[in-house]
Amino acid sequence: MSKLTLPTRNVGDLTITAVSDGHLHASFDFLANIDPADAARMQANAGITDHTSIHINCYLVRGGGRTVLIDAGAGGFKQWGGRLKANLLHAGIHPSEIDAILLTHAHPDHVGGLMDASGEAVFPNAELVAHHLEVAFWQDDGNLNRAPERARGNFLVVRQALDGYRDRLRTFEGGEVFAGMTAVPLPGHTAGHTGYRLESGGQNLLVWGDIVHFPEIQIPRPDVSIAFDQDAHLAAETRTRLLDIASSENLLIAGMHLGESAFGHIVRTANGTYAVSYER
Known about the structure:
This is MBL fold metallo-hydrolase. Belongs to the metallo-beta-lactamase superfamily. Keywords: Hydrolase, Metal-binding, Zinc. The structure is a single chain. The protein has one domain (8-278): Ribonuclease Z/Hydroxyacylglutathione hydrolase-like (Metallo-beta-lactamase, Chain A). The longest helix has 18 residues, at 232-249. It is 26% helix and 29% strand. The protein has a seven-stranded mixed β-sheet with strand order 1-2-4-5-6-7-8. The chain contains eight helices and 16 strands. It has helices at residues 36-45, 84-90, 108-111, 132-139, 141-146, 149-164, 215-218, 232-249; strands at residues 8-11, 14-25, 31-32, 53-63, 66-70, 100-102, 127-131, 169-172, 176-178, 181-185, 194-200, 203-207, 225-226, 252-254, 263-268, 274-278.
């Protein structure tokens, strides 16, 4: 089997590789503050042919004697994604080599790939690391009981994933989670939505989780939120703040739904809006 070449960047002594889990689809009816026809027009203008497709990225970080995976994809939940394990193997990486999995948050398209179809943990040697508020939210029976019927399946998937790693689950409140990897609170999307700032050799990269789902829409229009956001107003505030920071610092960005290019910079356009410049 020939090795698959995946998008990779070096940040000092760290090597960050984007590993695709595939796609999911979400109707533009899930978006707030924009007409679906305008959303479709923005996608078309950006050259995107499958307008409602959302790419799912995971990121492998190697360095300092450690192999860390940030998020685990959907694992085929609702026919979403499911390509992570195969793409890791094609890239010459066996799941048993993963030392730790950092979660940006626990929506099913980020934790579904932690367990296989038989209910076994896909990453047998990995510590699972997540913000304590995120874990507490999904384990709260009150939240489960208050959830609409369509969302209750999400709780079951998340709980199965957390239970599968219960003997090696670590939660944090903030700060450095591993050497050179610092948690960045990104409130609004979920209770404990967290990005990770990677720093080494004076270089930086921010894995920003689910700041956007449709980058060609939500980067120029940060006021556009999606129904998956627990607090749409706060999510929009966080998105606007982060776009400003990323553009002013010329910060390299990696995002779970940033598209197949997987890495990019945020730039200010002539009309004062933001755009993403992908690193090909």
